Amino acid sequence: MSDNLSVLGKARAEYQPKLPVSLTQGALKVKVVKGENTESVRDQEKIKSLFPNTYGAPVVSFEKCCCSGSEEKTAAPVRVGVVLSGGQAPGGHNVIAGIFDGIKSISKDSVLIGFLGGPSGLENGKYIQIDAELMNKYRNTGGFDIIQSGRTKLETTEQFDRCIKVVTELKLDAVTIIGGDDSNTNAAVLGEYFQSKNVSCVVVGCPKTIDGDLKNEFIETSFGFDTAVKTYSEVIGNIMRDANSAQKYWHFVKLMGRSASHIGLEAALQTHPNVCLISEEIKEKKMTLAAVIKQVADVVALRAALGKNFGVALIPEGLLEFIPEVGVLISELSEALAHHEADVAGLNTAAKVEKLCTWISKESAVVLKSLPAGIQEQLMLDRDSHGNVQVSLIDTEKLVIEMVKQELKGRADFKGKFAALNHFFGYEGRCAAPSNFDSDYCYSLGFAASVLAFNKMNGYMSSVRDLTKGIENWKAGGIPITMMMNIERRHGADKPVIQKALVELDGAPFKYFAARRDEWAKTESYTYPGPIQYFGPSEICDATNFTIRLERGAM
After folding, report:
1. Rounded to an integer, what distance in angstroms lies between the CA atom of residue 527 and that of residue 491?
2. Of 277, 259, 499, which Cα lies nearest the Cα of 390?
3. Is the separation of the CB atoms in 148 and 116 below 8 Å?
4. Which residue range forms the structural domain that includes residue 537?
């Protein structure tokens, strides 16, 4: 594989990720400090009843051990399994590298098992042993290809029992599940089941998602977000340069982010588009689809009046779910499909719509019938394994373009031109080589996970915070996954899930954006970030993203 490395690949292979001070002496020399007991963010009694063995555990922080060299510690080798779950995110390989180096710092004979293809690899016992030679090929690289990922949902006792059989046969001390909110919910459920069956193997989680919606006081950002948005922003900047050069097209860019607009907001802060829709604001203002379209059309008309028949608009992937009338429709469709999927199987779009309209409210039926047939079909596609509508398959940006075009045709005073092109940036950023920040952050998260595993901290997620204060001041530790949970409706039933962190409209990042968007709408305040992931002056390539700097008061 080394013969296939590009010049960039070789340079990144030489990068040495940094660690918080508390982890620099190795996992064996970390003092675990317990804080106060915790409770879930909502639905405390329900969550407690579902997690009687792991609920209420304390937040833990790590401190550097003060033992002298003459008090050298020793420990038996540990055996840890690792699972990559859900969509890819830059830095996953460095998490695994952090786990590998962490357990090797406990004992050179420690073993890291990589389960192949996601949770199904754990369930079915498909794995490889990750040794130093293999690990070194993947340090600081993008992607999840060292063991691949998967979206299998572990939710039945039969699946849990198969997992128990596998971890018992492999004599594992811990399994680390690297994933987003749903994957870490599964990790908590699996850890609770293991403990209820007196299985010695613990389950540890690690916060991954480019969407940026897995965060709180202790998880300041999910890994991969920084790299992905810098990657998108580079391409958005290229499009802005093209738009400003040709001055004849409007570019509508849909950006990943199923349930939150963090990616769109951060990309806007980096590039200054003429339009950026923030789903959470639209929901807060209870805007109809027509009102959203009018808002975009108003900017197009304003620029046309200034002789500018071009621009760039950023559209969040999950927009439709946040428009109240459409969000209700999606929720009702999900519920109807959960109970009547067989009744509509094989029907064409028109017949399926008529059938489904008998199981949803009259108001939602009106909304569904008002949408183009292509969008109707996309809204009725099979849900993912977690019961979510697959918003990445919905052509939201095309819908907005078509409806803006119709809105402008109906305006007698609109004398400009509207020619639009559509783009979807999603997969382009998920496997990018990690930024310096994500390289360091992911390595630290993995190393912290090794400490949690060694100390048998079941149902915990690794945490590294104070991320804007310089890595010498980063604080590593762990938080109970149940602390982040609430009850949500999934597949027609109430389920415990990690509460998503949405864009806060009273938060510093949104306020910064809102104070500038009117100016960005009418001018070409475009910025062209370029390839800012790692090469360049330290103040550029080592800088954390706008979102976390604004949230933490670091700018």
Report:
1. 43
2. 259
3. yes
4. 229-426+505-551
Tokens of 499: 């509460």
Residue labelled with tokens 């033992």: 67
Q: Which two tokens stand for residue 105?
A: 């710092």
Pure H helices in 455-525: 508-514, 517-522
How far apart, in whole angstroms, are the C-alpha atoms of residue 57 and residue 43? 16
Look up residue 185 and give its amino acid.
Answer: T
* 70 occurs within a structural domain: no
The closest of 212, 227, 150, 142 to 183, measured between CA atoms, is 150
CA 286-337-490 angle, 5° bins:
65
Same domain, yes or no, for 373 and 334?
yes
User: Do 247 and 299 belong to one domain?
Assistant: yes
- Contacts (Cβ under 8 Å, ≥6 apart) of 348: none
**211 annotated active-site:** yes
Instruction: Provide the token pair at 93.
Output: 């390989």
Query: How many domains in the chain?
Result: 2
The answer to the question of residue 414 being in a domain is: yes
* Shared domain check, 243 and 219: no
345 with 414, same domain: the answer is yes
- Which residue is catalytic, options 101, 173, 181, 211? 211
CATH number, residue 378: 3.40.50.460
Asked, for residue 7, whether it belongs to a domain, the answer is no
pTM score of the predicted model = 0.90
Q: Is the dihedral of CA 455, 456, 457, 463 positive or negative?
A: positive
Residue 167, in any domain of the structure: yes
Tokens 């993008």 belong to residue: 142
Structure tokens at 34: 């317990």
* Cross-strand partners of 488: 495
Is 381 found in the same domain as 446? no
CATH number at residue 158: 3.40.50.450
Contact 130, 475 (CB under 8 A): no
Whether residue 175 is found in the same domain as residue 255: no
Residue-by-residue pLDDT tens, the chain, 555 positions: 445 667 777 878 888 999 999 999 999 999 999 999 999 999 999 999 999 999 999 999 999 987 655 456 789 999 999 999 999 999 999 999 999 999 999 999 999 999 999 999 999 999 999 999 999 999 999 999 999 999 999 989 999 999 999 999 999 999 999 999 999 999 999 999 999 999 999 999 999 999 999 999 999 999 999 999 999 999 999 999 999 999 999 999 999 987 899 999 999 999 999 999 999 999 999 999 999 999 999 999 999 999 999 999 999 998 998 999 998 998 898 888 888 888 888 899 999 999 999 999 999 999 999 888 888 888 887 766 656 667 667 889 999 999 999 999 999 999 999 999 999 999 999 999 999 999 999 999 999 999 999 999 999 999 999 999 999 999 999 999 999 999 998 777 889 999 999 999 999 999 999 999 999 999 999 999 887 666 666 776 777 899 999 999 988
Q: Are residues 449 and 530 in the same domain?
A: no
> Which of 490, 518, 533 is where one domain is finished?
490
Q: Are residues 148 and 209 in the same domain?
A: yes
